[in-house]
Amino acid sequence: MVGADFEALYRAHVGQVYGLCLRLTGEAALAEDCTQDCFIAAWRALPGFEGRSQFSTWLHRIAVNTVLTRRRRGRGDALRDARELDGEALQLTDGTEAADTIDVERALRRLPPGARDVLVLVGIYGHSHEESAAMLGIAIGTSKAQLHRARQLLATQLGIGLETA
Amino acid sequence: MNSETFGSVDEALARLPRALTPARDLWPAIAQATGPRATRGPRWPVALAASLALLGLVAALSYSVLRPQAATARLAQDAGASRAAKQTMVSFESPRTAAFISARAGLEKTYQERLAMLAPATRARVQADLETIRKANADIRDALSRDPASPLLQQLLRSTWQQEIDLYTDVSQATEPMLMRRT
Questions:
Q1: B6 in the Ramachandran plot: left (φ > 0), alpha (ψ -120 to 50) or beta?
Q2: Do B151 and A49 touch (CB under 8 A)?
Q3: Contact state of B30 with A36 under an 8 Å Cβ cutoff
Q4: What is the overall mean pLDDT for chain A?
Q5: Which residues from B are below 8 Å from A96, CB to CB?
Q6: Contact by Cβ (8 Å): A44, B37
Q7: What pLDDT does residue B47 have?
Q8: How many CB pairs under 8 A join A and B?
Q9: Which residues of B touch A110 (CB under 8 A)?
Q10: Do the Cβ atoms of A15 and B155 come within 8 Å?
């Protein structure tokens, strides 16, 4: 039997990890696979977790690495620009305002992968550019530039401004 | 249309839920993949496993008995805001700091003062939950004394601190409307 302790950690973090994977891959089945791989990898890497970063940040790093590995293998291409959002794929934990947020999720999917990756990590999950750059294997300046590009593209798609007036 | 819904990109992103629910339970496959290794892992006491299992239920139970009371009054929204502010004040990354100790003490004092305002059944539920949290905390600390470098145990210990504070603030939130009616 796997320890109840690790299952408790899984239950506490699976929502965010799956959300992150879904937004990076754009595909529910692939996101589920990545989430599973992420927790299995986390279990194996757990002895090396030194507590220097938050546990969630550490877990997100593993999740991003899992997604990027899948992309490199060609099994999961996140560039599904014109694809309509599968309503069943996106089960929001909070059903309120689902229609509004689905508009945003659709717009996110249409972003170029590089820009979307940074927007998801920095704009949604609150990671710093340093963390984003480290996770994605890019320069900090690139992360900043991609975020700027992503926000502009998203604003255009949604027909809204960049910042609150 | 979206300009009416969202004022800005920042607002649109802020409204997105961070956590999403997968369509299927992913745990069985993870458990299968990690099972053999788990048996070679640190063996913590059965009591700890039992505590953790109960701990997982506490938040939902407390929430279910406390939240309906708060939700009956519009004032609960304001109480929720103050709760959020209090939680923001408490840094769970540094639970041994003076700021944390002070904030926790303040919340515990409010909890003690307001506990009597709850209905007997609710009060009993809340007290039982707090006891479960404290027992889990003690069991985890005990396990940590034997395996002090375990990041998993450290994470679980932090979660008990969080749950204790959540319980205090839930009681505070649920009793806020009663206090307002008295004044």
A1: beta
A2: yes
A3: yes
A4: 80
A5: none
A6: yes
A7: 54
A8: 170
A9: none
A10: no
Tokens of B54: 């109960």
pLDDT, tens digit, 9 for 90 and up, residues A99-156: 577 788 888 988 998 999 999 999 999 999 999 999 999 999 999 999 999 999 998 8
Residue A65 has pLDDT above 60, yes or no: yes
Q: Is A82 on the interface with B (CB under 8 A)?
A: no
Tokens encoding A24 = 């990076």
Token output for B41: 């892992």
Prediction pTM value? 0.57
List, in sequence order, the alpha helices (H) in A46-139: 55-73, 98-109, 113-118, 129-136
Asked if B19's CB is within 8 angstroms of A16's CB, the reply is yes
Nearest Cα residue to A58 out of A106, A22, A16: A16
Q: Do B93 and A90 touch (CB under 8 A)?
A: no
Number of residues assigned to chain A: 165
Q: Running along chain B, 183 residues long, what does each successive block of 10 average in pLDDT?
A: 65 88 92 66 52 54 51 38 42 57 81 86 83 82 79 78 81 79 66
Residues for chain B: how many in total?
Answer: 183
- Can you read off the two tokens belonging to residue A145? 């530039």
User: Could you read off the pLDDT of A72-89 as tens digits, one per residue?
Assistant: 876 444 444 334 334 434
Q: Contact B23/A28 with Cβ under 8 angstroms?
A: yes
Amino acid type, A28: A
Residues from chain A contacting residue B151 (CB–CB below 8 Å): 46, 49-51, 55
Tokens linked to B26: 């992913």
Residue A79 backbone phi and psi in degrees, to 5: -85, 80
What is the helix, strand, coil percentage profile of chain B, to 5? 75, 0, 20
Nearest to B155 among A9, A28, A97 (CB): A9
Please tell me the predicted confidence (pLDDT) of residue B76: 36
Distance CA B171, CA B157 (A): 22
